[in-house]
Amino acid sequence: MKKIISLVIRFIPRPFLQRVSPLVMPLFRLTLRGTDVHCPVCDQSYRKFLPYGRVSRENALCPNCLSLERHRLMWLFLKEKTDFFTAKLKVLHVAPEHCFIDRFEKLHNLDYLTADIESPLAKVKMDIHHIPFPENSFDVVFCNHVLEHVEDDILACREINRVLKPNGWGIVQSPVYPIAKTIEDKTIADPKERERLFGQRDHVRRFGQDYATRLSTSGLKVEENLFVKSIPSKDLLRLALAKDEVIFVCKKG
C-alpha cells in the first residue's frame, strides 16, 4: 500500500487526484474502522490513518476528509488560538485543501473564497503572482504548500501582503528542510533533477531554516508558531500529528 500510494502521488497529476480521491475513500473507511486515531477536522475515528507521501509516512491521511498531519494541526490552531470560527472575516484560500473547503464554506461568519491557477476545487482561477483583488481586501489568507511550486515566492508573498487588511493575518505553510538556507535554481527544468534537489518534480526550491526570514523580505511579517508543543503527547499520537510541525503565521507588514 505504501509503495502504491507513493507512486500514485509522484506520477499522477494532482488535479486528477483531487477529483478522484474522494470516490475511492469509502472502501478504506470500511477497512480501517476503529477508535485508535481521531481526526479533529471531520470528527471521525479509525484503527489507523492511511500512509501518505512520496517517502511514505505511516498513519497520515484521514480516509474520510483527506486531512494530513498539517491540516489537523492547523484546524486545532484555528479553533484554539484564533477567532476564525466566530468573527466576521473575509478569507482568501489559495490552493484550497479538500478537507477544509466544505467545512469553511458552511461557516456563516466567513466570506470565503477559494482560488488557484489549476486546482479543480477552487472557484477562482488565479495566478498568485498577480492576485486579482484590491489591496486591503481580506482579513485572512491561507496559502499552504504553494510557495515551493511558484516562480517567485517573494513576489507571491508581496501580493498576499498587499491584499491583507491592516490587521490581517494568514498561514503560509511549505515543506521546510533541516538545512540552513533555502536552495533554488530557476534554470533547472528537468523533473528528475528537480526531484533530486528540491524533493519533488514540481518543486522549484527547497526551503531551509531561513523560511520565515526569507518570506519576511516581501513585507509580510512571518512568525514561527510552536503551538504543537502545547499539545499533550497522548493527543499527538491519537490525532496523528507531527510533533515538530511549525505553523508559519503571517501578518500584514
Short description:
By secondary structure, the chain is of the alpha/beta class. It has helices at 2-11, 14-31, 69-81, 98-105, 153-163, 191-198, 211-216, 233-238; strands at residues 33-39, 44-46, 50-52, 57-61, 89-94, 110-116, 124-125, 138-143, 164-171, 183-184, 205-206, 221-225, 247-251.
Architecture blueprint of SSEs:
Layout lengths: L1 H10 L2 H18 L1 E7 L4 E3 L3 E3 L4 E5 L7 H13 L7 E6 L3 H8 L4 E7 L7 E2 L12 E6 L9 H11 E8 L11 E2 L6 H8 L6 E2 L4 H6 L4 E5 L7 H6 L8 E5 L2
Parallel strand pairs: 5-6, 5-8, 6-7, 8-9
Antiparallel strand pairs: 1-2, 3-4, 9-13, 10-11, 12-13
Please tell me the total number of domains: 2
CATH topology of the largest domain: Rossmann fold
Protein structure class: alpha/beta
Let me know the number of strands: 13
Order of strands across the widest beta sheet? 7-6-5-8-9-13-12
CATH superfamily of the largest domain: Vaccinia Virus protein VP39
Gap from first CA to last CA? 45 Å
Q: At the first level of CATH, what is the class of the largest domain?
A: Alpha Beta
What do the pLDDT scores average to? 93
Q: What is the name of the CATH architecture of the largest domain? A: 3-Layer(aba) Sandwich
The low-confidence runs, each spanning 5 or more residues with pLDDT under 50, are none
Share of β-strand residues: 15-25%
The Cα radius of gyration reads: 18 Å
- Compute the number of helices: 8
- Taken in chain order, the helices and strands follow as HHEEEEHEHEEEHEEHEHEHE
Based on Cα principal axes, name the global outline. Answer: globular
Major pleated sheet: 7 strands, mixed
